[in-house]
């Protein structure tokens, strides 16, 4: 078996849905891990609440789900389809607000180890910058199509000289040789993008689907835009969803996807496609209300697992 950087992980007290904790991934399994910190901007201050983000998701979804063996009516059977899918919780990547280079190294190394073990990585963040090293770990592998679900396109080359912050995630992804195409869905309102970022994204070939366009043509039609001849990497920013259901985010943006729209998009995107990996980021527990966002994040991850179990 390939060596795995287990020393870069910290076990969690409560695993996701009570699934087994593991020190290393195994082939054919899904490996869940958290990363609370990526690359903060210079103006950002440390927030101790952010450290608990992935663990807040674990606690909320485990409490809401009662027992993973119980009937899941979204899938007309137990979530993991009576054990057809093996899921492991690796804990949290060692990160710190004050050491961005180490954060990037650790996230990339852990993800590479999961991929080397022939497992599917699922990352729970952390701000959107944690996805940059997560995506970098796929470099050198098969071609990928990225489905980004977000309120913002994240194509800034830098902000204040920082090229690895949360406004640059998809710009950095576009520079990877393994990323051959991307679809950006749910885009709305005003973010960090200027005319030049929009033009650069479109010139590269990114297919930008605004929230209004997505609703006009329908979720199934949006998913039909995704190619089937390459692996799919799904990346979700929590502000893709409406703040009425996901208040625990950095940037509130009214008019986002409902929970039903999100689960439909995940299901349609996975239909007949090979999932390379999944990341969900920008959950800020200090801004959450009654654990709403934590539960939603956990349930979206659960939907990914439910679909994978039925494709196994």
From TrEMBL:
<dbReference type="GO" id="GO:0008783">
    <property type="term" value="F:agmatinase activity"/>
</dbReference>
<dbReference type="InterPro" id="IPR023696">
    <property type="entry name" value="Ureohydrolase_dom_sf"/>
</dbReference>
<keyword id="KW-0378">Hydrolase</keyword>
<dbReference type="GO" id="GO:0033389">
    <property type="term" value="P:putrescine biosynthetic process from arginine, via agmatine"/>
</dbReference>
<comment type="similarity">
    <text>Belongs to the arginase family.</text>
</comment>
<keyword id="KW-0479">Metal-binding</keyword>
<dbReference type="Pfam" id="PF00491">
    <property type="entry name" value="Arginase"/>
</dbReference>
<dbReference type="InterPro" id="IPR006035">
    <property type="entry name" value="Ureohydrolase"/>
</dbReference>
<protein>
    <recommendedName>
        <fullName>Agmatinase</fullName>
    </recommendedName>
</protein>
<dbReference type="GO" id="GO:0046872">
    <property type="term" value="F:metal ion binding"/>
</dbReference>
